[in-house]
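Bit of a strange request maybe. I'm writing a small parser for structure token strings and I need a real example to test against, not something I typed by hand. Could someone generate the tokens for this chain?
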Amino acid sequence: MDFNLDRLRTFIVVARMKNLSAAAKELGATQPNVGRQMAALEKEVNLVLFSRHSRGLDLTKQGQEFLELCQDIVGRLAQGTDVIRERDSEPEGRFNFVCGIGLLETILENIVSFSEKFPKISFGFSSTTNVYQLQIGGADAAVMLVPQNASEPDFIQRPLYNNPMRIYASPHYFQSHPMPQTLKDLNFHKVILFAGEDQESLNQQIMGSNLEGFSHPFIKVATTPAMRTALINGAGIGCYGYHQEIIDKGLLVDVFPDMPDQVVPYYYTYHKRLEGSPKIEAFYEFLKDITKIWERP
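Reply from user aminoacidic:
Good idea to test on real output. This should exercise your parser:
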């Protein structure tokens, strides 16, 4: 049986979105065209892949099993040929990388030195960490906050850096607010927290074991640059990665200097089918070097 790879990729998107209109928008196609492709695919494989209802689509049991097969096929073809081509040559081709915006800023500040060393690599960057993209070959590697090994045995995760988190506020903030002496004192301050499920550990040092006092924080932000901007401009007290330069410049104050760091580990993550890829190895070494700025002296 000859499979149309574009049709398989479309099926993967439809299965994830569970809606033809949403899938068509992501694919840059029309809803009728996507619908025809799915009908043709079901006919081609002689399987009922979807159950259709007024709100959209759900995968059938056959559809779920076929999705797992498609993800493996598409991912292997998308990335496996690159590994074969590169194994006996210098790294080259497209490298799609997923990470948070804070790390992306640091990468872009240093990318020139990497491209001078590996001029045949071009890049695609995304700031939305999504294991699904690694599974289907939409991304080659990612930096993740939470280890995926237990639930995703197909991924390789290598320690990248430990980010020591501190509680900061600006000198400007303390012109109109008293310096807190204990974590409980933060109940009387404008607390800024990270939003998003995968960011929760970044709040741990502020929250402690008592979440009630911070159930309605003054601000919630989604990225580390947003946290830095809010803190430096005196919006409140928040948890941000250790950065001695910010302290030395007098932009922020370490609110509890004697408190131990809340260390948050980050992992360089990729699918096991890319093990041995020259691009994977080259970029890992590059990341280890540029993330040294967050290490404690």
